[in-house]
Write a structure and sequence with these properties.
single chain; mainly beta; Immunoglobulin-like; 1 helix; elongated
Length: 132
């Protein structure tokens, strides 16, 4: 297991309590997020990310090899500030030739100090199979 995957796994386990109640951050997929792609493919996965709390939250997007955040109006970007009850579009470009393997359990958003991390409920987590 790579160091980044180990850190992500530990953060995911430490933040499981986020879903015991209503989630603070809601993820609503707007594109397919479970599919197979080849090294020749490029795909975009999109989620509406909504701050369900009564306060502003700052988050950073954690990416794996072959993923990049698409910038633009209304897009969340790598670092985002979500106002209370507001959201943005998280658009992630996946490039098969740059991926090291399958991408699962994403997207993953964390506070800048990693004190809190958020990810979609399991039914909405990315499951992208890289077919070589």
């Amino acid at each position: 297991m790579t160091q980044s995957k180990l850190i992500i796994t530990m953060m995911m386990l430490s933040s499981l309590s986020c879903y015991a109640q209503k989630p603070e951050i809601a993820f609503k997929p707007i594109t397919p997020f479970k599919f197979t792609m080849t090294e020749k493919d490029v795909a975009v996965v999109g989620y509406n990310v909504i701050n369900e709390t009564g306060s502003t939250i700052k988050l950073n997007t954690t990416l794996e090899a072959g993923m990049k955040s698409i910038k633009g109006d209304g897009n969340c970007g790598m670092g985002m500030v979500l106002l209370s009850k507001k959201g943005c579009l998280l658009s992630l470009e996946l490039t098969g030739s740059k991926m090291k393997g399958d991408i699962k359990h994403m997207p993953f958003l964390c506070a800048p100090d990693f004190s809190k991390c958020y990810y979609p409920p399991e039914k909405y987590q990315m499951d992208v199979i890289l077919k070589r």
